[in-house]
């Protein structure tokens, strides 16, 4: 029986070597700007916050808490955030330990931060808030593993970029806690890649998206060749590894076909190669932190682009077909349109208006009825009759109803009245390519809707 245990022991030993060493924690970042006096007012404030903040954060549904004590120049602002997948007990223990360690690691520093695997603690004499523009940059702390990806490194980079962008998009747009986890299939050397992204819950989705985009843009070339890496920031963080490190199932799943011939079993990596390499954090300025407004990075795969182009062509064909039918049915109106193409009537010809309004039906009169494709879709969505929107000539009952509902659901999310609630393109790509991503309920579209008496037309700019 012993010979049956040898393969199992070998697998367990290899897995143990891949796990990030706990000895790497914690990672302190000292401000080195202002210092407080021993046994003074600031230290008393720190002791007071240490007794309250871990309890408040662990009792919060978002595992997050902030507090302000005292007045300038002895004012102390503190923030504690636990990883979104840990429980309250682990959160309390982590933040309690952080308050023990940080004052020793950053002795008498008024501005200090410490990062653990499961929590972050930050305190400062400068009060910051979501969207504040009070500093030169978002301070980040980079960590990567020395071991490189040797099998299909180019494909690994591409997959990792898609996974990180999808996880970031889900955290910012589809999670009330601004937290998301993800996983993707790779190859036989590394079957799975895991990711995590998180922002402090006091931010808006737009601020979270910008913070994470800045972190991704600033570090994507730093460690995409490695088997693991992290960018740790006070306002937002993201991370990836080739072994599972979060609790529960992944919120975002990307499938990637395993390409090429079966790869040989990799030799166990030396322990030194798996030690995390810690990047040098920028020196903290006195001005605090900035939640920047960078460009959102979009990773779009070619199949998704092809699918979107196909949908656009089908929509264009469907829109043109009734117009051509109307011109054949009402040739006189087509002639009228050619005669009346003046400066005042160049937008639409009469035959187009006739086709669009159902032969000028009173129920489609603007201001009294549901004129407009978006309104009609929303009306069917509310009544549960979305399938009736499908053109019978496109397949009828042969089209899976679930696919129809999902496509229309995504379309309604993209035209919601609040521009900040609309998903970015990277999120749309993930939604179209995966059935495992949960979609939020859409709100009313911005273009036209009505109340019980009169129609109210509302417009809002589309997000680019």
Question: How does this structure look, described?
Answer:
With 464 residues, this protein is α+β, with helices and mostly antiparallel strands. The protein contains eleven helices and 14 strands. It has helices at residues 2-18, 41-59, 88-105, 153-173, 205-223, 302-329, 331-339, 350-356, 373-383, 401-414, 425-433; strands spanning 27-30, 64-69, 76-82, 112-115, 119-124, 140-145, 179-185, 192-199, 228-233, 236-241, 252-254, 276-278, 448-450, 455-457. The model is unreliable at 1-23, 133-138, 257-304, 332-346, 367-372 and 448-464 (pLDDT under 50). The longest helix is centred in the last third of the chain and has 28 residues, at 302-329. The chain is elongated. It starts with a helix and ends in a 7-residue tail after the last strand. The protein has four domains: 18-124, 2-Layer Sandwich (Killer Toxin P4, Chain A), CATH 3.30.430.20; 140-260 and 272-278, Killer Toxin P4, Chain A (2-Layer Sandwich); 300-360; 371-464, no CATH class. The strands form three sheets. Strands 11-7-8-10-9-6-12 form a seven-stranded mixed beta sheet, with helices on one face. Strands 1-4-5-3-2 form a five-stranded antiparallel beta sheet, covered by helices on one side. A two-stranded antiparallel sheet has the order 13-14. InterPro entries: GNK2, GNK2_sf, Kinase-like_dom_sf. Residues 24-128, 138-245 form the Gnk2-homologous domain. Residues 1-24 form the signal peptide.
């Amino acid at each position: 029986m012993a010979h049956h245990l040898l393969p199992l022991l070998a697998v367990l030993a290899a897995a143990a070597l891949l796990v990030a060493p706990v000895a790497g924690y914690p990672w302190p970042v000292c401000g080195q700007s202002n210092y407080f006096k021993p046994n003074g007012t600031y230290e008393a404030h720190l002791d007071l916050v240490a007794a309250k903040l871990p309890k408040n954060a662990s009792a919060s549904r978002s595992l997050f808490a902030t507090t302000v004590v005292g007045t300038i120049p002895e004012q102390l602002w503190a923030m504690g955030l636990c990883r979104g997948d840990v429980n309250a007990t682990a959160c309390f223990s982590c933040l309690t330990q952080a308050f023990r360690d940080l004052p020793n690691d950053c002795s008498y520093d008024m501005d200090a931060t410490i990062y653990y695997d499961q929590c972050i603690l930050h305190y400062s004499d400068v009060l910051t808030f979501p969207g504040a523009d009070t500093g030169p940059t978002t301070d980040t702390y980079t960590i990567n593993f020395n071991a490189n990806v040797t099998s299909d490194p180019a494909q690994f980079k591409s997959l990792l970029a898609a996974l990180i962008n999808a996880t970031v998009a889900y955290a910012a747009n589809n999670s009330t806690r601004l937290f998301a986890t993800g996983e993707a299939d790779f190859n036989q050397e590394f079957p799975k890649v895991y990711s995590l992204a998180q922002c402090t819950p006091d931010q808006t989705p737009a601020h979270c998206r910008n913070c994470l985009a800045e972190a991704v843009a600033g570090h994507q070339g730093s460690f995409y060749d490695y088997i693991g890496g992290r960018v740790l920031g006070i306002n937002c963080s993201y991370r990836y590894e080739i072994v599972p490190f979060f609790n529960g199932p992944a919120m975002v799943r990307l499938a990637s076909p395993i390409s090429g011939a079966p790869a040989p079993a990799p030799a166990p990596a030396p322990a030194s190669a798996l030690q995390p390499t810690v990047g040098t954090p920028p020196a903290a300025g006195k001005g605090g932190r900035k939640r920047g407004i960078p460009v959102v990075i979009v990773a779009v795969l070619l199949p998704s682009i092809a699918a979107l182009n196909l949908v656009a062509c089908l929509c264009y064909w469907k829109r043109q077909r009734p117009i051509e039918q109307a011109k054949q049915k009402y040739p006189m109106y087509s002639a009228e349109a050619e005669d009346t193409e003046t400066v005042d009537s160049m937008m639409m010809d009469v035959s187009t208006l006739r086709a669009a309004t159902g032969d000028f039906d009173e129920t489609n009169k603007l201001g009294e009825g549901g004129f407009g494709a978006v309104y009609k879709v929303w009306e069917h969505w509310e009544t549960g009759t979305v399938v009736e929107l499908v053109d019978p000539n496109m397949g009828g009952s042969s089209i899976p109803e679930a696919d129809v509902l999902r496509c229309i659901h995504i379309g309604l999310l993209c035209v919601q009245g609040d521009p900040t609630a609309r998903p970015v393109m990277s999120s749309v790509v993930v939604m179209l390519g995966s059935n495992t991503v949960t979609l939020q309920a859409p709100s009313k579209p911005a273009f036209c809707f009505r109340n019980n008496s009169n129609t109210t037309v509302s417009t809002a700019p589309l997000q680019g």
